[in-house]
Design a protein that fits this description.
With 217 residues, this protein is mainly alpha-helical. The chain contains three helices and four strands.
């Protein structure tokens, strides 16, 4: 046999390897990690647990930092809004007290006076009526302040709910024990295939009584 035939067979074998041989690995979509050749799925999932913990901790840290500043700012707004409610309630209380005193004084003067209603009595009555109007305004101010606090508290509750939801999603997305793994088929590159030796080998077979042949090595 000519040496050229061996070189031809070697190139043919290299071409066959390129076109027909593949290796199938497992890949974690969440972590971007692939299994090693010959590594079982069980061993691969166990190896992924360390990477998953690091990835999960990083995700949880980013989620926490994403909401911490917003939650703190909203809590401060709620604190100031609650202080505003307390001020409005105190102002309304003082206005009611002053109105009650003014009304009591006006009625007392009118009952004890033997003369006709004086200008001062009329003036106090007018002042009392004005204060009654301010009581209504103060009451409305208290209601608006309380509504503002309620809205801010709803917003805070919504932020906490989003934080909990994203945190839970992060934990589930990086669980290598339950994650659905992808199959990754890898074909060899021609430049990476090297045929070191091409040889002709005779393999002995034996003919059977029934006309078939069987290997005898």
């Amino acid at each position: 046999w000519a040496r050229g035939n061996y070189r031809l067979w070697g190139r043919s074998f290299q071409e066959w390897l390129f076109r027909n041989m593949t290796i199938t690995l497992l890949k974690s979509p969440a972590l971007g990690e692939a299994s090693r050749p010959g590594e079982s799925e069980r061993d691969f999932r166990i190896r992924l647990q360390t990477a998953a913990r690091e990835t999960r901790d990083g995700m949880l840290d980013r989620i926490s930092r994403k909401y911490t500043a917003t939650i703190a700012a909203l809590e401060e707004r709620i604190r100031r809004a609650e202080q505003a409610v307390d001020r409005e309630k105190e102002q309304a209380k003082q206005q009611k007290l002053q109105t009650a005193l003014s009304l009591g004084t006006t009625i007392f003067d009118a009952m004890l006076s033997r003369k006709k209603v004086s200008r001062s009595t009329v003036g106090r009555a007018s002042t009392t009526a004005g204060r009654a109007g301010r009581i209504l305004k103060e009451t409305k101010d208290v209601e608006r302040a309380e509504e503002n606090v309620d809205e801010l508290r709803k917003g805070l509750a919504g932020l906490h709910a989003l934080l909990a939801e994203e945190t839970e999603a992060a934990r589930k997305s990086t669980d290598p024990l339950t994650e659905t793994l992808e199959q990754l088929a890898i074909k060899p590159k021609k430049k990476d295939i090297s045929v070191a030796l091409t040889a002709l080998v005779w393999v002995p077979f034996q003919e059977t009584d029934k006309g078939g042949i069987v290997p005898v090595w």
